[in-house]
Design a protein that fits this description.
Elements lengths: L5 E3 L2 E6 L3 E6 L15 H12 L9 E2 L8 E7 L4 H10 L4 E8 L7 E11 L4 E5 L7 E12 L4 E7 L6 H8 L23 E9 L6 E5 L6 H6 L1
Length: 231
């Protein structure tokens, strides 16, 4: 299990060694630079490494995977060119076990279930649509969910991903009438004040790319009254 090893005003480090650094991303942060021009998390991590280890030149940092901007939770970066292709292979081959938490308004049809859909992405809308049957240009999406807690006005779910599709959890939960709190794009009636959605990359288990030891990382969700009530 992991513990927070460093917290700054804009960065929470869950794990770091010579080859890997793992961050608990805040909702609203972008992992890598995009057309918005907003400062990405990758730059913040580079600055952290440069300052902590007194590195005078350019800091190497490889982006392994991403999370949607309004989502929070675990992000893995490679600190060496040796680790990056190995981590890329682990994630591409689905050898990393990903568990998410989500808060939804409506109770799912079952307390636990496996959801199978065919997702088709609409790039113009930056949105994926879940279909029960395969259609042209769709990709199969599979996840398991279970209710882990009944909150005052919501339900907290734990989700294990079997595939990694664009907006997969958001689209599949919406398809069964369980829209994630604050997720206007997928049917929430109102946004969260800070623009976040209540979806959090909670747990990640994978083999260290160099040490060949299994790592299990757990990220605390953002602190707000609803997330706090899930713990």
């Amino acid at each position: 299990m992991s513990k927070i090893i460093s917290t700054q005003s804009n960065l929470q480090v869950l794990y770091e060694d010579n080859h890997v650094i793992i961050i608990n991303k805040r909702p609203g942060d972008i992992v890598q630079g995009d057309k918005t021009g907003d400062k990405p998390l990758s730059d913040v991590v580079k600055e952290y490494i440069a300052k902590k280890y007194n590195k005078p030149g350019a800091v190497y940092l490889g982006v392994v995977h991403r999370l949607d901007r309004p989502t929070s939770g675990i992000i893995v970066f490679a600190r060496t060119s040796k680790a990056l292709p190995r981590l890329n292979k682990i994630f591409a081959n689905k050898e990393a076990q990903k568990t998410y938490w989500a808060v939804v308004k409506d109770k799912p049809p079952k307390d636990n279930d496996t959801l199978i859909h065919w997702l088709k992405r609409n790039p113009k809308q930056n949105k994926s649509y879940a279909n029960k049957n395969e259609i042209t240009d769709s990709k199969k999406a599979i996840l398991d969910y279970k209710i882990i807690k009944k909150l005052d006005n919501y339900y907290a779910l734990e989700i294990d991903l079997h595939t990694g599709r664009h907006h997969q959890i958001r689209a599949q939960l919406s398809a069964i009438g369980c829209v994630i709190k604050g997720d206007l794009k997928y049917g929430s009636k109102r946004s969260n004040p800070n623009g976040s959605i209540h979806l959090h990359a909670r747990k990640l288990t994978f083999m260290h790319p160099v040490k060949k030891e299994e790592l299990t990382i757990i990220a605390p969700p953002p602190s707000d009254p609803i997330w706090d009530s899930t713990l």
